[in-house]
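Extended Data, panel c. Modelled sequence:
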Amino acid sequence: MTNRAVFLDRDGTMAIDVHYCRRPEDFHLFPETAKAIMILKAQGFKVIVITNQSGIGRGYFTEQTLAEIHRKMTDDLAKENVTIDAIYYCPHHPDDNCDCRKPRPALILRAAKDFDIDLRRSYMVGDMPLDINLGKAAGCRTVLVANHITDKSLKPDAVAGDIYQAAQTILEIESRNA
């Protein structure tokens, strides 16, 4: 395992959280997302999106629609000369009891295998407790994107106000551990 990665939650972390985003035109990245990804990639991290998309399992939209939304996301990033390495998503309904729905670690474990990633040297960044629990289950460090922690039992490695601050925090942690 030679690569490091930053796994990013999509909705609420990289982009405005639109309840069951069903159309590409409703998808909007936060202004600082591209810059955050750019600095992580410049430090040699793979950047991989990990997202639950139960709207597919609920019948709200199709995998084709999700592909169009993700194409808009990658196109918007490309306009700022930024790329992500991959997108892994769970299409299942929560009642399906699948192993790929966050906080279960199957998506990260698959990405780690696909990209030869050392999970102990990697990070999960997200805005929900399930993102932090996913990172911990996979053996990653975790950064919660939030203004404060409401669940005192949640123990992320760091807390940041937005995705750009999360990227800066990761670089600070890395420089302390170098």
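The first strand starts at residue 4 and ends at 8. This feature is highlighted in the accompanying rendering.
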